[in-house]
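Hi R.,

Here are the chain sequences for the assembly we discussed:
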Amino acid sequence: MIDKSIKILVVDDFPTMRRIVRNLLKELEFHNVDEAEDGAAGIEKLRGGNFGFVVSDWNMPNMDGLTMLQTIRADPELKKLPVLMVTAEAKKENIVAAAQAGANGYVVKPFTAATLEEKLTKIFEKLAKEAA
Amino acid sequence: MSQNTAAAAVAEPANTTEELLGRIGQLTRQLREGLRELGLDKQVARAAQAIPDARDRLSYVAATTERAAHRALNAIDVAQPLQEALSTDAKGLSKRWDEWFKNPIELDHARELVLDTRGYLDGVPERASAINSQLMEILMAQDFQDLTGQVIKKMMEVVNDVETQLLQVLIDNSAPEKRHEAAQSLQNGPQVKPGNPDAVTDQAQVDDLLESLGF
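And here is the predicted structure of the full complex:
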């Protein structure tokens, strides 16, 4: 069973996209959601922020999503944090690079609420299986 | 003249900065003369002029679309609680009616229920119209499509113009082996043109690719 009280960080440089993702998460009954406008701000919020999940864009100023993902995986405190990439980057080498960097899922924009729900569920199920 | 400067550079190595600046100046002059001879100088000037204009147009598109998205999301924020309240109130009344039908003797209870139901029904058109006005607001927010569409069309003309001119300059001046080398980057944004064999077109292809790699 998915813990809906889990704290989720949405990282995207476009405020509209953050709002859309936040609203979709609310629709899926995840109410504990925070936002960051780029990878650098994201890492800052994640450190000591007690987050259980990250939804991140790729192409952002200051620190892009891939660098943020690599920073998370290299950080002893954060390395196990599940990260779902939600991005307009649709090249195959992007998807491969994200997977190799340790992304737990990859969603291409534009996406539907159903896709987001499916990926979230899949990630949580996989994590639960690994933990068991 | 270039032979003279080269000879001078060899003879007086202490003067290299001055010599270098002189050569850069000479190359710039040559380039300008070359462009004029090719009839490209006016085109390059026009292209350079179009760039700040293009930047303005693009920031207009970005601002307009962001405003439209917020406008629609704001309307949804207002309409959703109204919609939810309508549904919750109806469910509440329905439940009370169900209970009364199971045990239909308490007339006082029924009278109160009838009054509440009537009150709810009286209020529905007004509440529905409040939701509808938010739907209209969402509808109106889509006007950005027309505005930005026009600007984007103009932008495409500018970009096309600049591309044709710059491409010609580049092709004329680049080494043959460099001509087919496209810029490689992991930050390309949305695929604006379909049919790129290096990109995926939908979520199913993302999933297939990841699965084939064992993720």
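The domain at 8-127 of chain A is CATH 3.40.50.2300 (Rossmann fold). The interface with chain B takes residues 14-16, 19-20, 23, 58-59, 64, 66, 88-97, 99, 106-109, 111, 115 of chain A (CB under 8 Å).

Let me know if anything looks off.

Best,
T.
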